[in-house]
Amino acid sequence: MTTRSLGVVLNGVTGRMGYRQHLVRSILAINDEGGVALSGGDRVLLEPVLAGRSAAKLREICERHNLKSWTTDLAGALRDPDNQVYFDAQVTPARVAAITRAIEAGKHVYTEKPTATTTEEAVELARLAARAGVRGGVVQDKLFLPGLLKLRRLLDGGFFGRVLSVRGEFGYWVFEGGWQPAQRPSWNYRAEDGGGITLDMFCHWSYVLENLFGRVEAVTARVATHIPERVDEAGRAYRATADDAAYGIFELAGGVIAQINSSWCVRVDRDELVRFQVDGTEGSAVAGLRGCRVQHRAVTPKPVWNPDVPVAHRFRDDWQEVPDNEEFGNGFKAQWEMFVRSVVEDTPFPYGFLSGARGVQLAESGLRSSAEGRRVELPELVL
Fold this sequence. Notes:
single chain, nine-stranded mixed sheet, seven-stranded mixed sheet, globular
């Protein structure tokens, strides 16, 4: 067994997601475990180079974790032949230009989503990567959640019979930033900075639905800005120009209908912050971030609507918990390991730039549906 190194330029790790999930819980955790295990038994250690605009923040992170390399010169980091992978966790409007530079420098690119703010730009990134012969990968972390992995197991085992519908609820109350600090950054609520829950979450729903139930072929959506004014990190009031709630109906290939509500203006009355209910001819399941409960047709109760009589039946007691049957690790880390193997072993990566472009297409189509008050069909994207 041999161990090799792979230089990775990480752009955007001073932000919450880039730092916590990608640097600490993925890159550093992988190295702590001895690197990414390859199919032949060799291992790959990742050599992170932190890139960004704030020298002080980058230096502080490196000192905190005993890292050697940081830079505010992204072009210089991309010229270094030892750095073979570029990762982007910046704000969305800055992403296309940086990824384009990385592709032109011959780097493999792994990126957060959305990959762009328009479908045209997202497809062009996929074309650039294909022409350059570099690997392109997009973070699709929700697929690695234990709850959705259990759903995948149920689908593979034929539990549902024919899937009829999917209903999803996602969100929580994000404080306005005045009397209590907001738990999301203020740019999320400014359209000019790439904010908006539709652009953020429809990219997730695109790959979740596509990988579990079928590609989205049409969308009918209504978006809203329920909280018109918020307070930023410096205590200044600002006008919210981006949507903070989106209500969507998605028509999938094969006939499945999905309905998903996404909101930063909802108080949680569920077991977890996200919940999906899948109903099929043979059974149903309710999955969250970690848990998943099922009810087979043979044990389905027979409710009768009668508003004049109190309901004595405890319907939730009729569901059965799906066992873990395996250990579930951090989803971000698992996908990082997949991407590194794909780069080093020159094998296909299932969640490429075209998949990311379909997420942007769904978000763009959802916003158009809301603005025009109509159902919008999504043509299949090709390179």
